[in-house]
Write a structure and sequence with these properties.
9 helices, alpha/beta, 56% helix, Rossmann fold
Amino acid sequence: MPEIVFDSCVLSNFALAKAIPVLERLYSRSAFVTDFVAAEIMRGIQRGHAGLEGIKAALRDGRIRETVLETDAEKDLFEKFSVSLGLGEASSIAVAKNRGWTFACDDKLARQEAASIGVRLTGTIGILVKATKIKHLTIKEADEVLAVMIEKGFYSPVEFLRSI
């Protein structure tokens, strides 16, 4: 299964909806975050966002794995994108581009920057649609997860997945 690197927003959406198991089923052994994204998540937990604890547990258990910038090419690209993006997004784009991974992100600017250099993209909605297509969730279940995400603050371009 192709590897995927998540930004903190997409992970947070799934954690707040208690839907981390959806990611684990879809991306078993191929789900990653950079150390910058892991730090953002830990900072969120320290600031009282207890709903993110599911991410911390998945990282601790290895269900989602942490990676670091390894090559000069990754570090150079990170440097370039960290001027206009957050460190988590910049590091994730650098990893995705240089390793041929997919980048899971909902942020418009980060998606534009990633697309401009040919990085494959998905986001919260794309992941939920994928889960329904491969029968990990029914449309009804995916719509219920989406409703919780919206209730918790996710700005979704759609209210129901069945409308896609």
